[in-house]
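Format notes (please read before filing issues)

Several people have asked whether sequences and structure tokens are stored in separate files. They are not. Every record keeps both together, in the order shown below: the sequence lines, then the token lines. Line labels are part of the format and must not be stripped during preprocessing.
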Amino acid sequence: MISPKSPHFKLYKLEEKALDNKEYVYAIADFLSKHPKEIAALRIEGSTLDIYANDKDFFNEASDAFKLFTWKRFIPDPTTEHLLDNGRKIIGKRLAHNKYQYKVYLTPHKLPVGNAVRTSFIEFVDQNSEKVLMSLSVKDWFLRTQWNWDRRYIYVDNEQTLLMLKLKCGDALGSVYEYLIIDK
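Then the structure lines:
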């Protein structure tokens, strides 16, 4: 094994950033270890760590503990906070692409690869392209994937179209999120 002090030792950029910011990484890990795992959800995207929590005390404590290196903090608007009780809602100022009421995650791993059901689903989406938005890369992924680790989705214009998709191939559809428009 090559020592980290060796000139031949090479880190990836993300690892370099983690080492450069190790005091912050340790502080976050220490803070989170003192709370139940269920109190917050974590998401790492590149060099950003997102912490999601519904507990106001935890939020305030985390905000205070990390105020020196926190990039953004968000709390719900008190007038719309009740809408967050249903975790399947996306609150925004407009619909997706100003048209689509639903965001639907796909689960093609539940279907056999190369199966006619997948092809038939894609053909159905293509025939209803004014009602369902599915990118070319998602279509390609949908036809070939066998894994359940991707977060790919389609947009659906209304409840009737969503019902048609469920009738066509309900196994291909996963979580459904509805957009709620808050005009502020």
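For reference, the curators noted about this record: Residues 123 and 135 are 13 Å apart (CA to CA). Helices lie at 13-20, 22-33, 56-65, 116-127, 136-144, 159-169.
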